[in-house]
Structures are given as structure tokens and as C-alpha cells.
Amino acid sequence: MADFTWSSGAEIAAAVSSGKVSAAEVTAQMLAVIEQRNPRLNAFTAVTAERARAKAEAIDASPDKRKLPLAGVPFAVKNLFDIKGLPTLAGSKINRARKAAAHDAVLIERMVAAGAVLVGALNMGEYAYDFTGENVHDGPSRNPHDPERMTGGSSGGSGGAVAGGMVPIALGSDTNGSIRVPSSLCGIFGLKPTYGRLTRARSFPFVASLDHLGPFARSVRDLAISYDAMQGYDGGEDAACVDRPAESATPFLEQGLSGLKVAVAGGYFRKGASAEALSALDTVAKALGAREVEIPQAHRARAAAYVITATEGAALHLERLRTGANDFDPAVRDRLIAGAMVPSTLVVKAQNFRRWYREQVLALFKDCDAIIAPATPVTAPKIGQATFMLDGVELPVRPNMGLYTQPISFIGLPVAAVPVPLKPLPIGVQIIAAPWREDVALRVAHALERMGVVAAPRPRL
């Protein structure tokens, strides 16, 4: 049998659908790779091997497998997704005492219905309040390009599993950048859809007004296929999920850049970026012929995002803080306690600014279809590294990896994160589109991928 370890999900699905390989063979191969690599990379917190084998056998026996867009494709999910039979950890110690989930998260159900095979749950920062991928309970996720370096967070296990060749597709969450930061540091593709596009039903929340769920992959086509499979209204399980028709992105990939105008964010999004981040941004901007625009008051958007994150997160966890404060990661606990003490007047100001800022940014899309910006200010720091230097200023790692992602997720715009394969470490660029235009972000990403400007580099493992 051919080695499918580094194959895309689309390639695996085509091979399984045609009978070239069985889903059971692909699953067995991927489980073996996980067993070999995970001890070094620490991406998985649970491997659902028995379930995966049973699903693969069912696909092989199905007369309809040719109709499944993800036939036999292994995938894994951040451990804040409900997985039937497992407690939903959300990266925490406290949640280990929860009862096992009675049902899968809706997005897992939709991936499985499309033929995908769930192989496990993935490591993450505690309660998703993290940009590093360092979990004090399960240990840090490790970057496949250098296991002494961070994956980024909070979807660190998702980034590490895909970049490390353990699954072609993984699911994660993004509140302030938790899909885009690991995508950047691990050198893979990620998609944060429009707020309300993909249901969050049966996943553990963090900040209800900012939380998004979305996929990671090593190719744009895999992002598009998985995104298409997960779309659809959920009947009201997630109050934020918008009741609108599914809008497939896959058919638009081959249209390329024809008719699209792309801009590059200047001002705040260039100030303080490392040489590597600017090199990646300029490389992408040159390939796209992008002109510069300025996103107004982005620094204030980031500050307002912090206020909303801290206060909503604190409200969610208040009872846990009262009864089990010592069971939290101290860094997470202290920020949640601080959030509980933020005056309500500041929250009102943050929400009022949010509405104004959204209007200003949406106005930019009257003159362009997409805007590009750095995904992270630097390449992957070392695990345990507390600070990094930008423009001669020493900045804490944990809060500042979201320097360029927070002003975008703050207003719920769709973003494709694309990896620029710099050496020795890759770094990502955001492709930001107007609401509900994931197809535009993915078209631009696919065009860059076909030009060879962006690519998911294979690490030496």
C-alpha cells in the first residue's frame, strides 16, 4: 500500500472512493503514525482507535462511498469539542471530573457524515485562554519544525497534529487568534469562518461573542472541503449560528485572482512586526499586487477585545473560580479573576467601540475584496520563553502572539491563514474577507498556493 502519511485529505478521499486503498488501511496507517510521533509532539490527549477502525470498516462496506467528499479521511479535534464517550476537557483539570459526552459535537457529526474518520482529541491551552500551546496539565504541544518551540495556541495540538503529518485535517477554535496563531507558527493553513457561520453546538465555550470553530489543513482544498462539509443551520442549538443557506467554497477555488482586488494592511499591522513577519507579508503582497490600506484604530480594537474576553470569560468561569481556583493554570486563573473586576462602564465602552469599528472596517471592502495582514509578529518562540523583542521593546509572549489577530476576530470577519515557508521556521499571513465571503479568502489562498508563494513545509521528523 502507498504511504498516505503526507497525502492531502482530498487525495485520500479520491483513493478510498475509487477503491485504490481501503479506509481501513488508511486508518491503520495513520494510527501507527500517531503512535510513533505523538510521544515527541504531544498533540493528542486521547486516541479513538476503536471508533476509528469501526468507522473505516463501515465506509469500506458502504455502496455510497463514492459520494462522500471526505471518504476515509482521518481527522482529529481540539479537546473542547464533545466526543461521545469522552469527557470534554477544554484543556483543564477541573473538567476531567465531567461525565462523558453523550453525543458528538455537531461539526464532528457533519465531518463523519461526509466520510471522515475521527481518530482522537487534541491538546490545547486551558479553557482556550492561551496563545502558546503550553498546557500545565497535559504538557506543551511541540512544534514539528522544532520540538523545542511552541505550536502556538490555544489550538496547539491541532496545529501540531496537522503539521506533524498525524492527520491531514483537524478542527480547532478561534476566539482571539487560536486558529491563526498555530497555523502561523506550525506552517499550515487555517480557516476562521465568519462569526455565526459554523455552529458551536456541543463544544465548550470561552467567550460567546467571539468564539469561532474552524479547520486546519496542509492544503487550501482540504480547508474548503472540510468547511463545506460543516456548513448549515443547526436548528438553534447555537444561538449565534445564522440560519442561511450553505455557500460552498470549493467550486470557486479554480477561479483564481480574476476580478479580485487585494489590499495589504499598513500602519498598526506593520508597526513592530519582526523582519520575518514583514518578509512574509511583503512576499504575499508582491505576488498579489496589493495596495496599502490602513485599518483605523486597530490598537483600540485589540484593547477592547481584551476587555470583552476577560469579562465574558470570567463570567463563564466564576463558579469554578470560587470552588476550584487551585485547579486552574495560575496564568489563566489570574487573568480570569482580573476580568471579574473590570468595571461595567469599560465593558459598555468596549462594546460601543466594537460597533463603530466594525462599520469602519466593512467600509474598506467597498474598494477591495480582501485585505492581507501578518498572522503573528514573530516565528515560533521556544517553549517556556517568556518574552520576545520587537523594535527594541521586550514583550510578553503569551498575550502578544495575538497582536494582529485580535483586531480581526473582534468583529467576526472570515480569515484564511496561509503559511510562507521561510527558513528555518515558517510564518503565516492572514487573508481577511468581508462577512460571509469565505470563498474569497480561500480563492486568494488557493491562487497563492498554486503560485508556490505559500505552502505547508514538511518538517524533518
Keywords:
single chain, about 450 residues, alpha/beta, Amidase signature (AS) enzymes, 11-stranded mixed sheet, two-stranded antiparallel ribbon, 15 strands, about 15% strand
Radius of gyration: 20 Å
The CATH class assignment is Alpha Beta
Overall average pLDDT: 97
CATH homologous superfamily classification: Amidase signature (AS) domain
Biggest pleated sheet = 11 strands, mixed
As for the CATH topology, it is Amidase signature (AS) enzymes
First-to-last CA distance: 21 Å
| Class per helix and strand makeup | alpha/beta
Shape: globular
Number of structurally distinct domains: 1
Strand content: 15-25%
Strand order of the largest sheet: 1-3-2-6-8-7-14-15-11-9-10
Helix count from the secondary structure assignment? 14
Give start-end ranges of low-pLDDT stretches: none
Helix percentage range: 25-40%
- N to C succession of SSEs: HHEHEHEEEHEHEEHEHEHHHEEEHHEEH
What is the number of E strands?
15
